[in-house]
Every structure is written in structure tokens, then in C-alpha cells.
Design a protein that fits this description.
Largest sheet: none
Number of helices: 5
Helix content: over 70%
Number of strands: 0
């Protein structure tokens, strides 16, 4: 089983579960407990952030430039999703929720080298 988590998909799955563990409870508070809205917000953006941005961002941007672009995409994508689903102050909440999971993910990466 540990070989699975060494694959790109396995690493993504761990990162995605971590993201959901942080973001879903926060989104549930601002979506009045709507599970589908809360679960799907990062379900749409996370694979793009994880797989597309590292592959497409120019090397000149460096790691932090890629992270900034990916997080901006996540915030804007989740803002649109929240707005379509009638959540007020969508940009503010998408920013707060993504900042929480980004900081958590970066701390986890610094401490353990993953996700």
C-alpha cells in the first residue's frame, strides 16, 4: 500500500484528503451546512492546482510563483462556485478557506516533505 502513496495519484489523494479535511468544515459554516457545495468547491480546483500548474508554469516563476498562481486560481474558481451556489461574500470566504489549507499544506510539507 505504501508504494501506492509514492505514485503521483497517491500523493495527490493524500493532499486532496488533507485539503478536504481543512476546507469542508470551514465551507460548511458559510454554506449553511450544504455538503455538496462544500465538498465540490475544492474537488473542482484541487486536481488542476496539483497536476496542471506544476506542469504548465514557466520555470522562471519558480516554486513560489507557481504556488501563488495556483492558489489564485483556486480562490477565483471556488469564488465562482460559491457565488453560483448563493454564498454571500464568496471571494472573502474562498480566500480565507484556501489560505487555511495552503498554510496547513505548506507546514505539513516543511515538517514531513509531503504532501
Amino acid at each position: 500500500m505504501s508504494a501506492f502513496f509514492g505514485t503521483a495519484f497517491g500523493a495527490w489523494l493524500v493532499g486532496f484528503a488533507f485539503t478536504q479535511a481543512i476546507e469542508v468544515p470551514l465551507y460548511l459554516r458559510v454554506t449553511d451546512g450544504r455538503w455538496s457545495t462544500s465538498l465540490l468547491a475544492s474537488t473542482f480546483t484541487h486536481p488542476v492546482v496539483w497536476f496542471v500548474f506544476p506542469a504548465l508554469c514557466p520555470l522562471a516563476w519558480g516554486y513560489w510563483g507557481m504556488v501563488a498562481a495556483a492558489e489564485a486560481f483556486a480562490v477565483l474558481g471556488e469564488t465562482a462556485w460559491l457565488r453560483v451556489n448563493g454564498v454571500g461574500a464568496s471571494l472573502k470566504w474562498a480566500f480565507i478557506v484556501n489560505a487555511a489549507s495552503a498554510v496547513g499544506g505548506l507546514l505539513l510539507r516543511a515538517a514531513f516533505g509531503a504532501p
